[in-house]
Design a protein that fits this description.
The chain is mainly β and 702 residues long. It is 1% helix and 51% strand. It has two helices and 58 strands. β47 and β48 form a beta hairpin.
């Protein structure tokens, strides 16, 4: 492949064998492995470079040891607590039962999971041996062995931990295999080290020792070995060259740079136009007339540029034909393939085609609002046209910050002047729960520690756990005990997006750069999900992780009966908290768990539109049916019951007798009667229908 200087190339190797694996090397002897796979992306190159590739069969990995064992060891292959340790392990030929180049080994971590535990300056040696056990306690002679690895390793979580060897070991399969691990890390007395699954043996297959001052010269023999997994390459082809030719510059170099619209995790209407970005890395302008093709989920768009792409510049192009997006439950996956048909303007080929997949969300249209008229001293009933899979949100401000109500109708408070409200439409999203709801673990430290007067808690939730973007208007935490009217007054909650996946230090977070979403009093009564309606919604992009900080400065300290919360263990220090009865702490303790949380998100939102309640000062007559007095909600009623209502005249004149009033019960029974009395101005009037309603009860309820 030919590329420009300062760029990278993607090399591709083909093999007809379905189970073959292509291995890429930097040297003709195949000793320095760079990558395994059919394609290899080089680093940035400034000169022509030759790479080497061969094909190998890929048998299944070989596991030695009882994977049902519940025994663990922290002595072998290394003891992470100490600065200087060594171990030697012998694995038998009849256990391995294969031969070939070993390019990867793995040990199984069990027990207490380590968190980003660093083992720097580690060295691993291998040799074949006729010994089936260690005959002495002497330190193994590594000068007669092949060094297969030297570097730093980080252990995070349990399970198989793979170590890609610097140099594969060509194992004959005839003799036993001895592995020696030398640990000379930079730190001493380090807690949180890994434990490894082990299997018992009948001979001294293991040897180890440790020291805090220098490498031991003798060790302790033991009758077990750590479980291991070998990745052995099978038969290999010959090695062939693959060359990247690097040139300083070219007259033209046309590339498909990106799909710039729709954006990943963005809000999109069902019918939308696709925009792409073209790039010219050459030193001459590419003239207009370049044919472009874009295939989106099987729909083909074609276009042609109408203006030149300037040298060393970009051009944004929008296809005139829109695509129709089929949303399922408010979201869709779009798979793009974009390419040009102008090889005369492209020396390299790797950037001629762009493949990209994104997730988009349904963008609802603006609501259709219906203004209304009311009288001074009365509320107004505002309404919008309903739409499936969406909800309407009513606000008192044009920025949509102060949420008043959710629904297709909104009953205002009593008004005395014409008032403008604001309404938007958002897609409905199911609540998002982050955390293992089957967990039986609990915490009273986070999100707050209710016993103390001053506490803080900080939690980081990952974007791939939330997996949505939208407006967060409610948070919920799962209470596992049953507090009784437990008051947490003067509580504050802050939210921000962050690129951090754990807390880098124990310092209390800086809330001055966060959005405060809640400040108030909360009462916890009973268990289960406890919802907190936010004062101001948080617009979450879905791209970054989410940090939530809870500041507790309640009026009383040393208060028992506080809530416990369901929690989930995680990798990394995603929790941080502390407490005090005299002042807010400035540092805390980091934790490898977070409390389970439930987010209520509004999806993509339309623009805000106004809905006006026009208030008139007075009127001659204004008759209102205020409420049904009988039957009463959730009360006892006889089978034959008279319906009673309360009316009100908001006008300035007497409403004369003779008004007909009607009720319809359960859509079937209709009763109309005449009011035989006047209704005075600004007065209530109570009316009871003489014809009773016949109530049909089912299991005593109607």
């Amino acid at each position: 492949e030919t590329i420009l200087t300062g760029t990278s190339a993607t090399l591709t190797a083909y093999n007809e064998a379905p189970d073959a694996n292509n291995l890429w090397y930097s040297d003709i002897l195949g000793t320095t492995l760079l990558h395994a796979g059919n394609t290899f992306t080089t680093p940035t190159l400034t000169d022509t470079t030759v790479y080497y590739v061969l094909a190998t069969s890929t048998p299944d990995p070989i596991i030695i040891g009882d994977m049902n064992s519940t025994n663990t060891t922290y002595y072998v292959p290394f003891y992470g607590y100490y600065k200087y340790t060594f171990s030697s392990i012998i694995y038998l030929a009849d256990e391995i039962n294969d031969h070939g180049p070993i390019d990867t080994i793995a040990f199984y971590l069990a027990g207490t999971a380590p968190t980003n535990f660093l083992m720097d300056n580690q060295t691993i040696y291998m040799t074949e041996t006729t010994l089936s056990e260690h005959p002495t306690t002497a330190f193994p002679d590594t000068t007669m062995m092949q060094k297969v690895f030297h570097g730093d390793l980080t252990f995070n979580g349990n399970g198989w931990h793979k170590i890609a060897l610097d140099t594969p070991y060509d194992y004959s399969g005839i003799n036993n295999l001895q592995i020696v691990w030398i640990n000379e890390k930079s730190t001493n007395y380090t807690s949180g080290y890994p434990y490894f699954m082990r299997s018992d043996a009948s001979t001294y297959r293991g040897l180890y020792n440790y020291s805090s001052t220098s490498m031991p010269t003798t060790g302790i023999r033991y009758l077990y070995y750590p479980n291991i997994r070998f990745t052995i390459r099978g038969c290999e082809s010959g090695i062939v060259e693959d060359t990247v030719f690097v040139i300083d510059s070219t007259e033209y170099e046309l590339a498909i740079d990106d799909v710039i619209y729709p954006e990943n995790m963005g809000c999109v209407t069902p019918t939308t136009n696709v925009s792409i970005r073209l790039r010219n890395d050459g030193y001459e302008d590419i003239p207009a007339g370049v044919n472009i093709t874009c295939i989106v989920n099987g729909t083909t768009l074609t276009g042609i540029t109408t203006e030149p792409i300037l040298a060393d510049s970009t051009l944004d192009y929008t296809f005139t034909t829109p695509i129709n997006i089929n949303f399922v439950e408010g979201e869709a996956i779009l798979n793009f393939k974009v390419y040009h048909s102008a090889p005369q303007y492209s020396l390299t080929v790797f950037n001629d085609t762009l493949l990209k997949s994104i997730k988009v969300f349904y963008q609802p249209e603006a609501p259709v609002a219906h203004s209304c008229v009311t009288l001074a001293g009365l509320p107004a009933l505002l309404s919008v046209d309903p739409q499936a899979q969406t909800s309407h949100y009513w606000f008192s401000d044009p920025l949509g910050k102060i949420l008043l109500h959710r629904g297709d109708t909104f009953m205002t408070p009593v008004l005395y002047d014409t008032t403008i409200y604001y309404v938007s439409k958002s897609t409905d999203l199911d609540p998002v729960i982050v955390g293992n709801m089957a967990s039986t673990s609990t915490t009273y430290y986070m999100p707050f520690y209710g016993y103390y007067k001053y506490t803080f808690g900080s939690m980081i939730y990952l974007a791939n756990e939330i997996n949505y973007s939208g407006i967060i208007d409610t948070l919920s935490f799962y209470v596992t005990n049953s507090p009784s009217n437990f008051l947490m007054d003067n509580q504050k909650i802050y939210i921000k997006e962050t690129t951090l996946s754990e807390h880098p230090s124990t310092l209390i977070p800086d809330t001055t750069i966060m959005q405060r979403v809640f400040h108030g009093d909360i009462i916890f009564d009973g268990g289960g999900w406890y919802k907190i309606a936010l004062d101001s919604s948080f617009n979450y992009s879905g791209v970054n992780n989410l940090q939530i900080v809870w500041i507790n400065e309640k009026s009383a300290g040393s208060t028992s009966g506080y809530p416990y919360f369901k929690r989930t263990d995680v990798n990394g220090y995603r929790g941080l908290y502390y407490y005090n009865n005299t002042a807010m702490p400035t540092t805390g303790t980091r934790l490898t768990y977070v409390p389970n949380i439930r987010f209520n998100l509004r999806g993509c939102s339309s623009a805000l539109v106004t809905d006006t309640a026009y208030v008139l000062p007075s009127t001659q007559y204004e008759l209102a049916i205020e409420e049904i007095l009988s039957p009463t909600e959730d009360e006892c009623s006889q089978s034959n019951t008279n319906v009673a209502v309360r009316l009100h005249n908001y006008g300035e004149e007497i409403i004369p007798a003779g008004i007909e009033i009607t009720y319809i019960a359960n859509g079937t029974f209709t009763n109309s009667e005449i009011i035989n009395s006047d209704i005075l101005p600004d007065e209530d009037y109570y009316f009871t229908f003489t014809n009773p309603i016949n109530i049909t009860y089912v299991n005593g309820i109607a």
